[in-house]
Each structure stands twice: as C-alpha cells, then as structure tokens.
Amino acid sequence: MRDSHDVVIVGGAVIGSSVAYHLAANPDFDGTILVVERDPTYARASTALSASSIRTQFSNAINVKISQYAGEVIRDFAETMRVGDARPDLNFQPGGYLFLARTPEQAQTLRENHAVQRACGADVVLWDRDTLADAFPHLRVEDIALASYGRSGEGWFDNMGLLQGFRAKARELGAEYVTDEVVGIGCTGGRVASVTLKSGVTVRAGTVVNAAGPRAAMVARMTGLDIPVEPRKRTLFVFDCARSPEGTARVNGGRLPLMVDVTGVHCRPEGRYFLTGGVPVDDAAVDRDDFEPRHAEFEEIVWPALAARSEAFEAIKVVNMWAGQYAYNTLDHNMIVGAHPELPNFIFANGFSGHGLQQAPATGRAVSELIAHGGFRTLDLSDLGVARILGNRPFLERAVI
C-alpha cells in the first residue's frame, strides 16, 4: 500500500465501492484510489443484510430519478462490470411495489406521490379497491381506499452481486482495497490531510470520502464534524406459507409484488418463501455492534398485519431471520452527499435510511463528479448536500419503509 493517495474512501461496501468504480471509470480522473474496509467478508454490512429492493415510488422527485438511474445500471450490470469472462448477474426480479392506503390522509399521500412519480416518467398506476381485488385476489381489500402499483422499474435483486460487481471492476480499473480500519483523520489548514489506520499506518489523502454506513457519524467526528446519522435496527423474517398465493396474481405473469401494508409491514416473495418485516414500535438508535434480531416483532407486529390482509398468510412459519442496521438520517430520512464547507475535501456519502443499495449507483456517480469536476454533471444532488443539515432545513422523503 502506498503512503499517499489522491482519494481515500472510508468503507468498502456498496456505497464506497460504487464511488470507487465510478471514480476509476471517470475519464477525467487519473488519480489513485484507496478503499479502506474493516471487514472484507461484509458479514455485518448494511449491504449484505439488506432486503435488496429497488423502487421508483418515492415522494421526492430526486429520489425517483436516483432509482431510475439505478435501474439502468442494474439492467446493464453484467456487461458493464465484466471482468475477463466474469459477468455478474444480479438476477433482477421485476415484481414491482404495491403501496396500500386506508385513510383519506394515506390516499391523498399516494395521489401526491403519484403525481411526482409520473412527472418523472415512472411507470406507476393508482388503483381503486375493485381493481386491486381483481389484480391480487388473495388480498382482503375491504378497508383499502387506494393502491399504488409499479408496473415496471421496480423489484429485487442480488445485493452482494451489486457490491462485488462494483468492487471487482473498481479493482480492475486500478482502485486499491485494504483490510484495515480508519481510527483517525488528520486535518490542517481547513482541509483533510491524512487518515490513520488501526494497523498504525498513516496515509496522506487529497480527498477523503465518508462511506462508513451506520458508522458515518463516528467517522465524521474524527474531523470534528457531526451529522445526524445513527444506526437503527431492522429485523427481517423469512417465512414459509402453507398455501402460498404466489402465482395467483392476474398481472405480471402471476408474480406478487413487494406489498407495503397500511400498517407499514412489507412482504414479498423470496423463491418458495416470503420475506417480511416492519417498523419497530421503539425505533431508537442501537449500538453499532447490535445485530440481535428482535424475535417478538414477528408475533407482535408482522404476523397480525399479514394475517389480517390475506387468508393465505394466516398459516405461516418463520424459517429464518436476521437483523441489519439502517444508517438513519434523523433530520429527513434522505441521503447526505457532498463536501462540508469547513473541510471542502471531506465528502459525505451517508444517511441513506434504508435506501443505500438502490441509491448506490447514483451516489457513486455523483461523488465521482464532485471529485473530478468540482460539481454535479448529470443529476444535480445539491438539495441533498450538507447545507440543509447545517441550516436544519429538512428535505423530506415521506415514502420511507
């Protein structure tokens, strides 16, 4: 490992590796890249523990466009990330998302979100109760006022395939990965100058990118800065179904979508099984090393909602579960991307609040543009920058799962 790099990226999971790839592939950047990752197995990375889905059904236009770019990347991933004869297949499953609304307020939110999505060209439709019942006959819809369904551009895919594809291509293009941990960041003259690693090595750095996921605030504090990002735990459950409704849909070749119930519980097919989860009642910050699943959430939150929504989900059995962590932006649930005015060569790529996997492609491209060109060239993410954090001006995303 060299003792000096033009760019040092703190964190080598999907965000850090996307930044490394997009920067290495940028024809206007000819510097060196070092990615520092504390755990190359990624066993507890948010990337590895994600539900691995993508949607265009957001309330904010910029988030819709971010996902649309990700959809393009996923579509072309095997060829774009080809290394030798290896073509990473993300096994994209175009199941779509289905959001349900019960109250007039929920229905109005879906209508407002739909207007934003359609203005961006997203393939999303609104359905009344009868249309919903006809499309998905296994659902109980008596209480539903409105539904929003993504007909294309939404689904789920291989999370680790996305990470490893970016990582392998970045390395082929010259990015260096090192197994170590950043424990200190040196600053001088209003700029970041170096990073100190747990191994004792100090590396001079022209630019440092914070891609540390749930540890983002800890890394920021090494420079004397603070961001409102904290680890929030989410437990996912895999269950078997005695009478699976998969294949009964009258749209999309019988495939069921990822359903977001009025309770906030979500559920989608996963092979012969189903993947599900919900928002904890006590959604507080957790220790960065806390990955113990909340077993009781299935009986107390998830199963009651699913059983009420479909007779098919009355008889189900958990076969697996795990917990991951959201890098949760407590200000507005949106990513923070860009440089800090006090340290212009310290760049944030943090606070994705559960959307990091699908937002990684656009984030990597944006950060590469900031470094290579000094500003955004494709999709303007200025509204997601640090200025709103410093000014306490939320840039809200309402469609958070």
Automatic annotation (TrEMBL):
Q: Where is the FAD dependent oxidoreductase domain?
A: 6-370
Enumerate the InterPro entries for this protein. FAD-dep_OxRdtase (IPR006076), FAD/NAD-bd_sf (IPR036188)
Question: What keywords would UniProt list here?
Answer: Oxidoreductase
The family database entries (Pfam families) matched by this protein are listed as: DAO
UniProt-listed SUPFAM superfamilies = FAD/NAD(P)-binding domain (SSF51905)
Nuclease keyword on record = no
GO CC: one term? cytoplasm
Named from the GO MF annotations, one term is: oxidoreductase activity
- Provide the GO biological process annotations: mitochondrial respiratory chain complex I assembly
What is the name of this protein? Glycine/D-amino acid oxidase-like deaminating enzyme
| UniProt organism field | Rhodovulum marinum
